[in-house]
Amino acid sequence: MTNEKMKDTALEDLGFGSRMHSKRRFINKDGSLNVERTGYSNWTLYHQLTESSWIGFFMHVVFYYVLVNSIFAMVYLLIGVESFGGIKSGSLWENFSQMFFFSVQTFTTVGYGAMSPVGMTANWVASLEALVGLLSAAVATGLLFSRFTRPKAQILYSKHAIIAPFENGNAFMIRIANTRDNKIMNLEAKISATWYEEVDGSMIRKYASLKLERDRVFLFPLSWTIVHPLNEESPFYSSGEENLRKMNVEFLVMLEGYDESYNQMIYSNTSYTCEEIIWNAKFKMMFHSDEDKGTVLELDKINDVELMDIKNDE
To answer: What's the predicted TM-score (pTM) here?
Structure first.
């Protein structure tokens, strides 16, 4: 890539700054930012419960459920088992177990009737636990609803990008598909690139938005091969594989569309490094027509490529 071509390219900063010299990728394959924050913690329970996995979410709920009931069971033990009707005094473990299950009944407002508080102290503590149980159920319901209704794009990206012949030249291509049967409308794709460039003896991180052959599809029923022509308008015009590796180029992909199921906008992003680009290849077809089923989209073939017997000129 020539310096004159670099100067003519419309550059932009994606938020990482020009002094960023890390050799690691900026955006991970799953779309998360490859940034570790230190020196200050802004942890919130809501963020933890909404962003964690489903297994992590239910583990937090079970831990809270057991912890709260155990605390109230110990409080009931301090009050004394004689303050509760239907409970027979026994060993410490037996008393704790009975108090724990009484706490569960009070916390969940089940109240089978076999156990009941006797006296003002026991009744006040049981009333407090009933309030805590109601508030906890409300919070848990809200968190569960938030997780279920949070819009999340299920976009499948090809494992590798390819550089293949395109319109008397070459083009950078990736392939995407929707793994769900929902309808995504007005899906827009943006690809930006970031690379190193030496300026006045210093390595500077550069950014550029790449012009796409098509940046929007009205419907997204099948796969979509997103194409950036490596023509004279591209910052990587006439750049070969070795040059791209030296520049440590990373292609950042951003998708935005309207999900009819969620009735909201959805977003998805990923990135491709030079090590994830296959040169002189083309994607194989991943859908075919069927007399009974109509059009069949084979998602397991999204990574299928076919190498081409073409020598790339540096």
So the answer is: 0.72
